[in-house]
Amino acid sequence: MIAAIAAVLYGDWRLGQSPAVRDWAGGLPLAGLVLCIMPAAFWEVSRLARGADLGVLPVSGFLSTIGLGLWPYWGRLLWPQGGAAGLVAVAGLAMLPIFAEQMIRFRTAEAVRRIAATAMAVLYLGAGAAAILSIRMTWGVPALVLFLAAVKFTDMGAYFTGHAIGRHKLIVWLSPGKSWEGLAGGLAAAVLASVVLAWVLRLPCTAGGAAVFGVVMGVAGQFADLCESLLKRSAQVKDSGAVVPAFGGVLDILDSLLLAAPLAWVLMSVAVHAG
């Protein structure tokens, strides 16, 4: 998976360096990857909702998720001045087909529950994917690599440290496998990865700034992982799916990224304006 993601990001970076195509091709490989994995992720969220006796509107929910998630790419082509305001408008427009599908297919039956579950799926997946893609479209592939590494090195560091020396459980009732020792090891890994990558990729930030970014992203990623655990416990399932052997579902891999990405976008925006 790491090799495949690296290939997509390298191809994206190369396209972004070509003056002939970068205006429309920059970000296209990453947008294509989002388009490929969103169907599985949306199905898994729908499955979790069904496990909690909730229904998700499949057509409007999926189309709204894709429209919102890919907005940083297609919005730049159709509405270059839209920016963040355009994303808010798209998020609002996404509710219209959701209400329409509920009216057409189910009328008033469980309208509040079904619309609420669908809106959760759209915001969870769509806004998270949009934030990830927006990092790439705004600050380039190196900044995206920094974000991905900070979050995922936390996951890996927490896993190995927790299995080796984890004794004190973080939140037993929610995620019994996580420990405070694992969290500390994960944050240390995130700091190391962030500092090294910021230097290797020649990003415009100090070692201290990269270390702070690593810590914040590590904490945000672990909290995001707990958020998905909350959904799984509510649905009474261990994994969101079985698409990826030994890992579970697509959502089990994306969870830490989806909710950490908006915070990463905010931090990068603040850092750019402060600089």
Report on the architecture of this protein:
The protein has 275 residues and is mainly α. Helix content is 78%, strand content 3%. The protein has two domains: 1-139; 141-275, no CATH class. The protein contains twelve helices and two strands. It has a two-stranded antiparallel ribbon. α3 (28-51) runs antiparallel to α4 and α9 (141-165) crosses α12. The longest helix is centred in the middle third of the chain and has 29 residues, at 111-139. The mean pLDDT is 93.
Sequence of strands across the biggest β-sheet: 1-2
Q: What's the overall average pLDDT, rounded? A: 93
Rg over CA atoms: 19 Å
Helix content: over 70%
Q: N-to-C SSE series? A: HHHHHHHHHEEHHH
Question: What's the end-to-end separation, in Å?
Answer: 35 Å
Number of contiguous helices: 12
Number of strands: 2
Beta-strand portion reads under 5%
Report the biggest beta sheet as strand number plus sense, adding barrel if it closes. 2 strands, antiparallel
Class computed from helices, strands and strand pairing = mainly alpha
Uncertain residue ranges = none
Number of domains: 2
Sum up the overall morphology in one term: globular
